[in-house]
Amino acid sequence: MSDMTARLAEIVGNSNFLTGDAIPEDYSHDEELSQQPQLPAYVAKPKTAEEVAQLLKAAAEHKVPVTARGSGCGLSGAARPRENGLLITFERMNQVLEVDTTNQVAVVQPGVTLTELDAATVDAGLEYTVYPGELSSSVGGNVGTNAGGMRAVKYGVARHNVLGLQAVLPTGEIIRTGGKIAKVSTGYDLTQLIIGSEGTLALVTEVIVKLHPRLDHSASVLAPFVDFDQVMAAVPKVLATGLGPYILEYIDNMTMAALIHTQNLELGIPDKIRDSCEAYLLVALENRTEDRLDEDVEKAGELLAELGAVDAYVLEGSSARKLIEAREKAFWAAKALGADDIIDTVVPRSSMPKFLSTARGLTAAAGGAAVGCGHAGDGNVHLAILLKDAEKRKQLMTDIFALAMELGGAISGEHGLGRAKTPYYLKLEDPAKVELMRRIKQSFDPTGILNPDVLFSAEEA
Fold first, then answer.
1. Neighbours of 446 (CB within 10 A)
2. Coil, strand, or helix at residue 110?
3. Contact criterion met (CB below 8 Å) for 135 and 118
4. What is the mean pLDDT of residues 185-204?
5. Which positions ≥6 away from 125 have C-beta within 8 Å?
6. DSSP of 209-227, one letter per residue?
């Protein structure tokens, strides 16, 4: 392996290569809660696609497993490296290469964070609208997990906002897919195949993202409901009005209490109402003009009252921003509560009441608790599972994921499977589909070096 060490160091330069005790602990994990950290054998920090290609060629020749890393804020363990593996971190590939206002796209390297991309597009009056809840996350990480977030109800997830890629295959070939174009009907859509593949097919070295006009005026309506089913019943009615909320979230009372406490929120909701309500619906609206926004906010408040809300609190300016920022930090609130695992199942909107009531019943029967919030507009449920017994928790997670699939949903809506959820996927998914994906994996990665514990190799739950 000394030959491997020398070769990798030569490709990226000694100052951009780490091995042994020189590797910091931060490279041993992402933010997934249940997996033990694991340091890799090597860390390489490439600057160009050509360096990535050379790294992958060397890894393939020596059969060294490769894990890609963006900002390390994923929640599924996909960025946790192998003990004998190579971690390729894209922190040096962090340039916004172009903001094209004519085509309303940006061309960026994978290590660019959402904060950096937002700063690069603000003067053009445009924005990248995928906000997965952590603005330090990288665009490459967004691509790898098909990230979503609260704005997906209006703007869609990463695969709706990524138009093209440059990617390096583990054979060392560099390919381009898609482009600054909105539609392609020429052959297989390799862009969409790579998006969401969690570093198992190719390593993305450049991304063309769609940009949307920034709307100057926004406000939020927070509506507490006594009964959770009322919240779910209100969602399709809000969407049917044509108001076009860019955020439509439910937050259960325990999660709201945790957010208020950990983020020091002042929302003006009387204690009596907070104590009597089971859940909240958050409706965030935006518009080009203040008058039109005011009209929409008034209509939303009236509708929510008709649908059974105890009240409707209009939050503007810093109050609205603070609540939305707090909701984006819900993972940290769950962590503070002592969550043992986080799930992000997705089901059809109409199935959310049944899913949540059944999932909570299963959790209670197992001796645990399930609290959370979610993207009510697209059926993406985020639950923090509090259950210390590992074996009971594994069975509970299996039962909850099976329930989601029975209702027409999926194990993950936006976090990905990673190493943490792959065993459940292998146990519950149609074997024919898994085998087809294995064949696709083999076509891209004949030596099987890219993230080999994700999607296929982990032991079944």
1. 12
2. coil
3. yes
4. 97
5. 213, 214
6. EE-EEPPSEEEEEEEEESS
Q: State mean pLDDT over 241-268.
A: 90
CA distance 82 to 65: 7
- Percent share of the chain, pLDDT over 70: 99
Q: Name the residue type at position 176.
A: R
Q: What is the DSSP string of 264-322?
A: T------HHHHHH-SEEEEEEEEESSHHHHHHHHHHHHHHHHHTT-S--EEEEHHHHHH
Whole-number Å distance between alpha carbons of 211 and 433: 34
pLDDT tier at 459 (50, 70, 90 boundaries)?
very low
Question: What's the pLDDT score for residue 461?
Answer: 39
- The answer to whether 454 and 200 have CB atoms below 8 angstroms apart is yes
3-state class (DSSP) for residue 28: helix
Ranges assigned E (strand) in 122-246: 126-127, 162-168, 174-178, 203-210, 212-213, 217-225
Task: Show the tokens assigned to 422.
Answer: 């792959």
In whole angstroms, give the CA distance from residue 461 to residue 288: 50
pTM of the model: 0.94
Judge contact between 377 and 349, C-beta under 8 A.
yes
Please state the length of the chain.
Answer: 461
